């Protein structure tokens, strides 16, 4: 289950396709060396997204995990 409390490292370990999704949305978690121990929520919010958008990220990432 994908949650906003997961670290980026946990997320990409569980859902490798998440890297592409995050990069398409301006979160270059792996490519540019941003902290992979940061949570999904903090990574998204640090890029200026709202709480509602954080929830959208979690929903979209959950869909990727079910592939």
> What is the number of independent domains?
1
Low-confidence stretches: none
- Portion of residues in beta strands equals under 5%
Q: Which of globular, elongated, flat, extended, rod-shaped describes the shape?
A: globular
Structural class: mainly alpha
The topology string of helices and strands comes to HHHH
- State the total count of DSSP E strands: 0
Report helical residue fraction. 55-70%
Q: State the major sheet.
A: none
Q: Number of helix segments?
A: 4
- The averaged pLDDT comes out at 89
Radius of gyration: 10 Å
* Alpha carbon gap, first and last residue: 13 Å
What is shown here, in short?
The protein is mainly α.
Could you please describe the fold and organization of this structure?
The protein is mainly α and 67 residues long. The protein has one domain. It is built from four helices and no strands. It has helices at 8-14, 18-24, 40-46, 51-66.
Which short descriptors sum up this protein?
about 70 residues; mainly alpha; about 55% helix
Topology:
Blueprint: H1 8-14, H2 18-24, H3 40-46, H4 51-66
């Amino acid at each position: 289950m994908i949650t906003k409390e997961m670290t980026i490292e946990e997320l990409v370990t569980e859902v490798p396709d998440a890297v592409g999704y995050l990069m398409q949305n301006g979160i270059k978690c792996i490519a540019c060396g941003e902290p992979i121990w940061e949570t999904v929520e903090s990574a998204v919010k640090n890029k200026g997204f709202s709480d509602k958008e954080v929830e959208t990220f979690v929903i979209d990432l959950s869909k990727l995990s079910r592939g």
